[in-house]
Amino acid sequence: MTDNIPHFKFHIKSSANRFCGRIELKGEVIHTISDFGEFYSACGYGKSMAKMGILAEDYIWETFFKHDERNCTSCFQLHVIEYLFRYSDSFTKKFRHKCDEFIEAHVEKRAACSVLDCNDRKKNSAT
Question: ∠ at Cα 114 (113, 118), nearest 5°?
Answer without folding.
Answer: 75
